[in-house]
Design brief:
Strand content: 15-25%
Strand order of the largest sheet: 3-2-1-4-5-6-7
Distance between the termini: 30 Å
Helix content: 40-55%
Radius of gyration: 17 Å
Structural class: alpha/beta
Shape: globular
Number of helices: 9
Largest sheet: 7 strands, parallel
Length: about 250
């Protein structure tokens, strides 16, 4: 399905990004595992892929840094010759009520989640334009559609990702490049794993499916949007949320 493709996944050392990297490797892609925090976790993801017979490479880059992204993409192109798939998954949260949220908390979330997505599209799209082909998958969120109390910064960043996705899709569609977004709901990751059981139960009660999702379910969606089977799908937001947002 993705045999011979080179896929760059940002924030791929854990959670949804890690699941996407593993899934795409299983489908034949050589994956670039980007991280900014824990190299150890990134190496663990790489080892898991290699042990299963896949190809994976680890690169550090702070996606919120314009120059770092430029250098990162240049290095990947020089080493691998092309970039077929870009998954913009890197993201952070700094939750708090709007009236007490610091400027730093607002700015940092926007810098990583929204500007980081822009930075990577900005440089990767140049290579994809030369190739006249490419798949870009951006990680949005259900709260970017519906909003969420205590997450004004995160919701704003993810709503921005959706707007960026649609704009980039219109600019790049004529050159064989698709740009889509995935809007996960509540997914079982390290972040949700810190919640108390009663909070998880409360969250699950708000989901029509009745349960939290798994990173692998998001990974399957990302792999589809990155494949040739999705060549006529662009500018779309695919909800993987158990029916939360209908």
């Amino acid at each position: 399905m993705l045999k011979g493709k080179t896929a760059v996944i940002t924030g791929a050392s854990r959670g949804i990004g890690r699941a996407i990297a593993i899934r795409m490797a299983k489908l034949g892609a050589q994956v670039i595992i980007n991280y900014n925090g824990s190299e150890e976790q990134a190496r663990e993801a790489q080892r898991e892929i290699v042990e299963e017979g896949g190809r994976a490479f680890v690169y550090r880059c702070d996606v919120s840094d314009f120059k770092q992204c430029e250098h990162f993409v240049k290095e990947i192109v020089e080493k691998f010759g092309r970039i077929d798939i870009l998954v913009n998954n890197a993201g952070i949260t700094k939750d708090g009520l709007l009236m007490s949220m610091s400027e730093e908390a607002f700015d940092k979330v926007l810098e990583v989640n929204l500007k980081g997505t822009f930075n990577m599209i900005r440089f990767v799209s140049r290579q994809m334009l030369k190739q006249k082909s490419g798949r870009i998958v951006n990680m949005a969120s259900v709260v970017g559609v519906s909003g969420n109390a205590g997450q004004a910064n995160y919701a704003a960043s993810k709503a921005g990702v959706i707007g960026l996705t649609k704009s980039a899709a219109k600019e790049l569609a004529s050159r064989g490049i698709t740009v889509n977004a995935i809007a996960p709901g509540y997914i079982s990751t390290d972040m949700t794993g810190q919640l108390k059981d009663e909070i998880k139960a409360q969250i699950a009660s708000t989901i029509p499916a009745g349960v939290l999702g798994d990173p692998e379910q998001v990974a399957h969606a990302a792999a589809f949007l990155a494949s040739d089977e999705a060549s006529y799908i662009t500018g779309q937001v695919l909800h993987v949320d158990g029916g939360m947002c209908m």
